[in-house]
Amino acid sequence: MANGKIGVTTENIFPIIKKFLYSDHEIFLREVISNAVDATQKLKALASVNEFTGELGDLTIRIALDETAKTITISDSGIGMTEEEIEKYINQIAFSGAEEFMAKYKTDNGIIGHFGLGFYSAFMVSKKVEIVTHSFKEGATALRWSCDGSPDYTIEPAEREARGTDIILHIDDDSIEFAEKTRIEGLLKKYCRYLTIPIAFGKEQDWKDGKYEDTDKDQIINNPNPIWSLKPADLKEEDYMEFYHELYPMAEDALFSIHLNVDYPFNLTGILYFPKLKNNLEVQKNRIQLYCRQVYVTDNVEGIVPEFLTLLHGVIDSPDIPLNVSRSYLQSDSNVKKISSHITKKVADRLQEIFKNDRPQFEQKWDDLKIFMEYGMLSDEKFYERAEKFFLFKNTDGKYFTIEEYATLIKPTQEDKNKKLVYLYTTNREQQFTYIEKAQNKGYDVLMMDGQLDAHFVNQMESKLPDARFVRVDSDVVERLIPKEDLAETKLTKEQQEELRPVFVCHAPEKTNFTVMFENLSETDAPVLITQSEFMRRMKDMAQMGGGGMNFYGELPDSYNLVVNANHPLVLKVIGETETAMKADLDKVNGEIAPVEASLNEVKDAQKSLKPDDISQADKDKVAEIEKQLSTLKDKKTAMLSAFGKKNQLAKQIVDLALLANNMLNGEALAKFVKRSVEMIKK
C-alpha cells in the first residue's frame, strides 16, 4: 500500500477560478469587501482582549474607482498582514484565516469568511491583483503582493504608513463593465448595503451653481445597523414600515411584519412582511433577501424556504446559512432545512397572535391575506394544521367566520337529506346575483370564493372536512343545491318534454354546448335557468391554474345545462302553442314512428332470451335497419320541431332571459332581445 498527497497546481486552478469559482462573476466585489470587513472585525476583537492597544480610529472601508486606469481599490484599516501571513493566507489557496482566527479566540465577532476562497474571486474579473498591506503588529513594514493570475507572484517593500490593506484590482478587458461607476454603485447597493463596517464610495454631493459638486464628506453606501439586528423591544411599528419602504420604495404598505430573533438551536434574525398580493402569485416572488452576517447571499429563496413563503417580502439573516451561491447546496444544507421549518412555525404563530389579539384588524386585512393563506395551506401540510384555526371564510354579506364557526352557522339549514353539510359559494357576486338571491331567499348562506386559488382550495376543504360538499350557487336549480325531499309533480308528460327539447335548444348560442333538462320547479321560479356542472367547471378552473393532470379538462369546451321549468305557465304556453300549431304534422310523423318502434320492440323481445353469439347476422342486420329507419323518422320530427321553435318568439324570449341573467347575451343577440321585448310589451 502506498500513501501520498493529491497534487493541485496553480497552473490548473487559476483557469478554474476565473471561470467557475462563483456562478456569477459580479460576486467578486462582495467577496473582497467581506475580507476587508473581516480584517476590521478582527482588529476590534483583538482590541477587546487587549492584544491591540492602539487607537482604532476611523474604520471606514473605502472603495475607489479609477475609470481611466480601469482599477478598483478596496482599502481597510484592519489588522493588515505580515509577509508570513501573506504566504499563509494568500499563497495557500482555500486556507481560511477567518476560521483560524475564530478557533484561536473562540469568537466570530461578526467575521464572515470561512473557506479562504473569497479573495481569489478577484481573478474572475482582473488581469492583475495587487495587495498593499501594513500589519498592526509592532515593527511591521508595508508590503506589496502582486499576481497576474499565473503561478508566479512577487512580494516587495511598499509605502503605506497606516495599518490595514489595499486590494487593487486591474480589471480585465473582457470584464470592462466593472470599471464603470454606475455598475460599482449597483453592486455595492446589492451586496454591501448592510455590511457591519461603514463603506465609503465617493463623496456626497451638493447642488451648486446649477450642477452637483462633490463635498468633503464621504458617501457612506451602507447601514451597518439594520433594524433586523436590533431588539424588537426597541422598535416601533413605524420603524418596520420605514424599513419596508427602504427595501421596496415603490410598494404599498405591508399588511403585517414578523421580527425573527432566534439564538437557539441556531442563529437567525430577520424581518418578514406580508405584502398586498392582489391575487398575483408569480410577480411577487424573489422578494426575500437572504443574508449571512449582513452579507447579501441571494434573493432567490425558492426551494430554500417553503414555496408559499416565497410570497413574503423582507430579510432573513443567519450565520448558519453558508455564503454559497449554489442553491442546490443551500437546499441540502441541514441548517437551512431547520431554519425553513422554524420560519414556517413563526409565520403561523404571528398570524394566530394577530387573529387572537386583534381580530377586527385581521378581518380588515383578510382579503389581501387570503391568497397567501390558501397557498400555504395547499402546499404545506404543517402550515395547514396550524392555519385552520384562524383561516376565515367570507360570505356575500361581508361577514367573516372561522371554519368551525361557519359549520355551526349553516348546519341548521344547509344539511342535505344524506346528512352532508353543503357549503354554497359564488365566484362572482355580480354575475351570479340571481342565484345568490334565490339561495338566500331559502335561508341559505353563500360564501365568496372569487380568488385565484379557490378552485384548488375548495377541493382541499372537501377532503379535510368530514361529510361536506362545496357547491357553486349556479351549478343547479336552487331546489337541487341542497336536496332535502322529493320535488313537486311535473305538469308535462315525458312525450311533451321530448317535443319541447328541440323547441328550446334551437335558441341556445351555437358555439356553446347546451343540454336541455326539465325540472319540476315551482311556478314562481324562472321559466328557464342556466346552470353549469360543478365537477366540470371546477376541473376547468383548476386546469387554468395549472393543476397537475388537469390539462385534459382545460381543453374541453364550456358546457351548460338549459334547465326548463316544467311547471311554469310560460313553458306550458309554449307546449300548448307547439301542440296546436304542429298537431297535424306531429300526428303524421308519430303515426310513422309508432309502427317502426313496435316492430323494433317485437324483434328485440324475441332476442332477449338469446345470447349475442346465438343471434344470426340476418337478425342483427334487421335490427340495425329498423333502428336506422327509426332514427331517420325521429330526426325528421326534431327538424320539424326546431323549425317551429325558431319561429316561436315566446320560447326565444324566455331562453334569452336566462342567457341575460348569466351575462351570456351580448352584441347582436342582445340588440334583438331588446327590440323583441319592446314589441312583445306593445302587444
How would you characterize this protein structure?
By secondary structure, this protein is of the alpha+beta class. The chain folds into 4 domains: 10-220, Heat Shock Protein 90 (2-Layer Sandwich); 227-373, Ribosomal Protein S5, domain 2; 392-481, Rossmann fold, CATH 3.40.50.11260; 494-607 and 616-680, no CATH class. The chain is built from 23 helices and 21 strands. Strands 5-4-3-6-2-1-7-8 form an 8-stranded mixed beta sheet, with helices on one face. Helix 8 (334-357) runs parallel beside helix 11 (381-387) and helix 22 crosses helix 23 (667-682). The chain starts with 9 loop residues before the first helix and ends with a helix.
The gyration radius over C-alpha positions equals: 39 Å
Per CATH, what is the topology of the largest domain?
Heat Shock Protein 90
How confident overall, as mean pLDDT? 85
The CATH superfamily of the largest domain bears the name: Histidine kinase-like ATPase, C-terminal domain
* Shape verdict: elongated
**How many structurally independent domains?**
4
Q: What's the arrangement of strands in the largest beta sheet?
A: 5-4-3-6-2-1-7-8
> Considering DSSP H and I runs of 4 or more, what fraction of the residues is helical?
40-55%
- First-residue to last-residue Cα separation: 112 Å
- What structural category characterises the helix and strand content? alpha+beta
> Any guess at the CATH architecture of the largest domain?
2-Layer Sandwich
The CATH class of the largest domain: Alpha Beta
**Beta strand %:** 15-25%
Number of separate helices: 23
Strand segment tally: 21
Low-confidence stretches: 1-9, 94-98, 111-116
